[in-house]
Amino acid sequence: MKKRTLSLLMAASMTAGLLAGCGSSKPAETTAAPTTAAATTAAETKAEETTTAEETKEEVTPVTLNIAYMPNYGSLWSIENAIDQGYLEEEGITANLVEFQDGPTIIAAMESGSIDLGYIGQGAHKLCINGQATIFALSHISNGDALIGGPGIKTVEDLKGKTVAYSSGSSSEDILLNSLTKAGMTMDDITAMDMDASAIVTAMLSGGVDAAATWSPNSLKILEEMPEATKLTDNMTFSDQTVSLASWICMPKYAEENRDVLVRFTRALFKAMDYAANDHQEETAALVAAQVAQDKDSVYEQRGDAQWMTGKEVAKGAADGTVEGYYELQKQNFIKSGAVEVDPPVADYVLLDVMKEAGEY
Fold first, then answer.
1. d(CA 200, CA 147)
2. Which of 9, 75, 216, 265 has CB atoms 3.0–4.6 Å from 70's, for a disulfide?
3. CB 101 within 8 A of CB 110
4. Count of helices and strands (H, E) across the chain
5. Inter-axis angle of helices 218-225 and 197-205, nearest 10
6. Which of helix, strand or coil describes residue 123?
7. Using CA atoms, how far apart are residues 361 and 14, in angstroms rounded to an integer?
8. Is 35 in contact with 65 (CB distance < 8 Å)?
9. Which residues 6+ apart lie within 8 Å of 146 measured at CB?
């Protein structure tokens, strides 16, 4: 490159001298050659940069991931947009979405090797604290859980001696325990009926139970189809003392061996979160409805289930300690309630560095 530029400059200088000796009246021509040389240099530099960019892009190893989700807006809002907007494709990732009903079941599927990455709600975070799974991205702060009383039940205290449906190990159990504790009650004060999340709605609507602790869209369906039902509590009832988080997780071993994949996947999620956190909620509802085979309007109603964060906000929070603070508060409340007996540093099971690196786009 240097030799070529020098030759062009020497040729330009000789041309200028010849023109001056002939008494040329066109001085503008004396600068034409240097300008051309500069343009040539710039063009070649751009070509080199383009080649480098293409080579870098080619170095990304394509990967297909089995990704677990739950059939609601909160679980799918970012991943559906990451697919639809092409953000995952940009990262060389193909997503195979697999539906589950709750977080503990997703973690069990990961342990069996059938699932690579997955979404969990509040309750399943206990298993992450216990070392069974690793969190690599915060999805949102949830308000989708609720304790709902049937006819004649207007307060948590009214649940004494009543049958309450819940799903153990999930955020359903958490909202129930928090509600009972706030009312000065325990599980011994009620008849707690542990059942699959998918069966809770049927049990409640059929009158098989007196109350139900569940999450959206189950909670919305119960309140819509049972006008006499009362929402006794939700996540915001306890916002002054706890935080309900939703996260993306994987197995600890997968995190150790596939950090680059986690960063690429999280970067795609963050871009999708930027796109959909404050806008495009109707389009998002349509995407989610198509995936879960539900009515679009019903899915759209779920948009109030959380504080939707942008990817930039999560990345910034991971850098300044805010996100770590959320998970610390969550952990301490699990410990206080007796749901968790260990107290590891948040950094042991939450990959804050992945969130920070993924946010550099």
1. 12
2. 75
3. no
4. 16, 11
5. 10
6. coil
7. 49
8. no
9. 175, 213, 214, 215, 216, 219, 223, 231, 232, 233, 234
**Cα angle, residue 131 at apex, residues 193 and 145 outer, rounded to 5°:** 40
- Pairwise CA distance, residues 13 & 37, whole Å: 12
Q: Kindly report, residue by residue over 314-353, the tens digit of the pLDDT.
A: 999 999 999 999 999 999 999 988 999 999 999 999 999 9
The whole-angstrom separation of Cα 318 and Cα 137 is 10
Helix (H) or strand (E) holding 47: helix 32-58
Q: Smallest Cα–Cα separation from 284: which of 292, 276, 293?
A: 276
CA distance 71 to 171: 15
DSSP structure string for 264-331: HHHHHHHHHHHHHSSS-HHHHHHHHHHHHT--HHHHHGGGGSEEEPPHHHHHHHHHHTHHHHHHHHHH
Is the entire prediction scored with pTM above 0.85?
Answer: no
Q: Which of 77, 86, 114, 137 is nearest to 291 (CA)?
A: 77
- For the chain, strand residue ranges (E) read 63-69, 93-99, 117-120, 134-142, 145-149, 163-166, 191-194, 211-215, 230-234, 245-250, 306-308
State the Cα–Cα distance between residues 28 and 36, nearest whole angstrom: 13
3-state percent helix, strand, coil for the chain, nearest multiple of 5: 55, 15, 25
Residues of the chain where predicted confidence (pLDDT) is lower than 70: 1-58
CB 63 within 8 A of CB 69: no
Distance CA 83, CA 108 (A): 25
**Rounded Cα–Cα distance for residues 24 and 21 (Å):** 8
Q: How far apart are CA 122 and CA 268, in angstroms?
A: 23
Tell me if the bond preceding 345 is cis, omega within 30° of 0: no
Considering only CA atoms, which of 6, 36, 31 is closest in space to residue 16?
Answer: 31
- What's the rounded Cα separation, in Å, for the pair 137 and 351? 7
Which of 107, 101, 144 has the alpha carbon at shortest distance from 124? Answer: 107
